[in-house]
Amino acid sequence: MQDWLWMSAADLGRGIGAGQIDPIALTDTYLDAIDNHEHSARIYSVVTHDRARAEARAASERASSGQRRGPLDGVPISWKDLVDSAGVATEAGSKLLEGRTPARDGAVLRNATAAGLVCLGKTHMSELAFSGLGLNPMTATPPCINDAGAVPGGSSSGAAASVAFGLAACGVGSDTGGSVRIPSAWNDLVGLKTTSGRLSLEGVVPLAAKFDTIGPLCRSVEDAALMLAVLGGGAAPDLRSASLRGMRFAALQTVVMEDMRETPLAAYHDAVKRLQDAGADVTPLDAPEVDEAMPMSGILFTAEAYGTWGPVIEAAPDRMFGPIRDRFRSGADARAADYVAAWQRLDQLRADWAVRVAGYDAVIMPTAANLPPDAKRLMEDGSYYLTENLLTLRNTRVGNLMGVSSVTLPTGVPSCGIMFCGASNGEERLLRVARAAEAALT
């Protein structure tokens, strides 16, 4: 049964469907692993034992009677602590929301429950989702699978750790500037950033609602595809016969290749070579619109974030970690006219980007320019914290600024991912591309 903890969600679902895995035994195996894991309290903010067991019993009955609701019916997953769950604390990693207990599940959790998935509980995260590092001294900092002294990436830090440490078959997180993809990359997982608006944000604690997205952190592209269908209440894309032969990739050069650290740079170049060896055509691409958009992220993200949370923060500022509080406050003095103008300009830049990349199957780049930073040094060295936080989210932010779907895949080098950006609302096509790339990179 311990082998179940390391299987993909899709394989677990197939085992249930074949009568080889009982959802009750599977859920108990996960709950026992959580309850006895040395890092459990740093990964899960709440473990919903009663709900998980009740959902597992129902899934077991459906499996026995041939009435399974879908390929992941009976599979246990975790939820980032910003997706509302009825009667369970949902505090978005912040002391400011301590005791916040919604009466109703968020829309994506309702969809997952309707599809038969089992809710294991809620996972720790960066405060109000506003950091890519995963460092949270106010509640908990989850571990990184590859470095006990490093941060795991954020803000979906616990979501990634829950999967990487075998405490969930999949984690559901959110991504505003990289918060699904960074912890996925640093913990050697597949992470899907969906297009803004593709999945419902009803019952999701916001950061910057115009950029916020929901997405899965999982073991395989197949899992990501199945989870996209579950979260959206639709059908999964067909990944069969996906091949790199004849695919055209644009290797983005603008901004994303600057200040790359040695290990992730080497891992990226090796991954690109393997894509080429498998039949993909890779062409360097410069995109001036990315260069122009990057500085605009300051006003676009921080103004909306502070506009959303400013009064709550200022009512109890000492209940926040200083660097996170300061990042929110950097949006306090933004002029409304500048914010509106920035959005109008970004809309044009997105249109320019769409034209520039229309002939490619995906745009590729390193997921992160750096490796997971040392947690102790982040707490002690303010300049190190600032440098690493900004560098961490730089490349992933391209997908958010350009308004497109994006997925990160492991390269085989620990904590080094390669990112594929597709079209806006082009998740199905992107996942076929990613499945083909996964086969070449594994």
From TrEMBL:
SUPFAM superfamilies in the record: Amidase signature (AS) enzymes
Residue span(s) of domain Amidase: 26-431
Protein's name in the database: Amidase family protein
Highest taxon listed in the record's lineage: Bacteria
One Pfam family matching this protein: Amidase
